[in-house]
Amino acid sequence: MKAIVYQQAGLPLTDPKSLYDTELEKPQPSGHDLLVKIKAISVNPVDTKVRQSDNPSSPKVLGWDACGVVEAVGDSVTLFSPGDEVFYAGSLIRPGTYAEYHLVDERITGRKPATLSAAEAAALPLTSLTAWELLFDRLQVGGGQGKSLLIVGAGGGVGSILTQLASRLTGLTVIGTASRPETQQWVESLGADHVIDHRQPFSEQLAAKGIRSVDYVASLTHTDDYYDQLIEIMTPQGRLGLIDDPKALDAIPLKRKAISLHWELMFTRSLYTTEDMSRQHEILNDIASLIDNGTLRTTLDEHAGKITAASLREAHRRIETGRSRGKIVLEGF
Predict the structure, then answer these.
(1) Strand, helix or coil at 33?
(2) By the 8 A CB rule, do 332 and 306 touch?
(3) Tens place of pLDDT for every residue, the chain, 333 residues?
(4) What CA dihedral angle connects 219, 220, 224 and 227, to 10 degrees?
(5) Are 161 and 296 in contact (CB under 8 A)?
């Protein structure tokens, strides 16, 4: 089968070996595995982080988000059958989705939204799972009536779906941050009640909108840079959730306000085969239903063409600028 791989970490994307086309043996399903024929994939920051930092002993297939068709199933599969259209975000500890065929556990797989194309659906799984888990499992917002949520980096992949979930499924006042005018408009279109510029002081901008403090913060990017500001603007006994990788994080400043700190990593359930691993199957099915009934919309921003090494190198380059909006998707081999 066709696949795109890398073997040496940190190569510049101008080097053809940073991601290159190859042929690999087609995998075979067992246990809870689905063998999926890949139709479309999307690219996430985690793809670029792994390519830059992890030196594999043999050529490694990156990629997690995918949409495709089930071709065969393992002997323990009960949730899907061959021919079913699915979407999912995969596992950190298995080969990725930059390939014609891919194995994924049925318990972290959802049915593809019927109203979306494969490319539109491929934009959703990783960010939807991250946003849902952060909002409801980690921050535990509940109904959210009378409370507020600040989303730092609301225009990115996770932010684009988190803004929708919070504005449509809760009573929260949703404040998103974005710096460029076009991204600010994007965040407003996704349902944010207010948008502020993360290049400017948070407290002054919030005060100008009549907001004294925020109850919940979802810090999706550059937490190191905004940490002190976030503590300053948070309501006592608020909840701070984050998904990025600060170089260091001192929790002591949170004590005075009794702010609780919550990490979200959507790969945790599959990494540890947790008892509630199948919850991701349920969440993805819920996302599909919300898409199909018009509550949510895809966050696809750019269709980058066929799934090739050259197009993936360009997609990685775009992600690494830190200026991408929504999701970058590739389709077909």
Answers:
(1) strand
(2) yes
(3) 999 999 999 999 999 999 999 999 999 999 999 999 999 999 999 999 999 998 999 999 999 999 999 999 999 999 999 999 999 999 999 999 999 999 999 999 999 999 999 999 999 999 999 999 999 999 999 888 999 999 999 999 999 999 999 999 999 999 999 999 999 999 999 999 999 999 999 999 999 999 999 999 999 999 999 999 999 999 999 999 999 999 989 999 999 999 999 999 999 999 999 999 999 999 999 999 999 999 999 988 889 999 999 999 999 999 998 777 789 999 999
(4) -10
(5) yes
**Encoding tokens for residue 320?**
């690494």
Alpha-carbon distances of 118 from 75, 110, 113, rounded to whole Å: 27, 13, 9
CA distance 127 to 156: 9
Residue 84 tokens read as 């079913």
- E strands, 153-257, are 173-177, 194-196, 214-219, 234-242
Residues 16 and 91: beta-carbon distance below 8 Å: no
Provide the CATH number for the domain formed by 2-126+272-331 in this structure: 3.90.180.10
How far apart CA 179 and CA 228 sit, in angstroms, is 19
Give the type of residue at 76: S
Structure tokens at 98: 């930059």
Q: How far apart are CA 142 and CA 172, in angstroms?
A: 10
Nearest C-alpha neighbor of 94 from the set 275, 245, 270, 269: 270
In the block, residue with structure tokens 């004294």? 212
Residue 243: name the closest of 331, 320, 137, 332 by CA: 137
Domain regions of the chain by residue span: 2-126+272-331, 143-264
Q: Are 198 and 152 in contact (CB under 8 A)?
A: yes
Nearest CA to 97 out of 107, 87, 82, 112 is that of 87
In whole angstroms, what is the distance from residue 126 CA to residue 118 CA? 15
Report the number of secondary-structure helices (H) and strands (E) in the chain: 10, 16
CATH topology of domain 143-264: Rossmann fold (3.40.50)
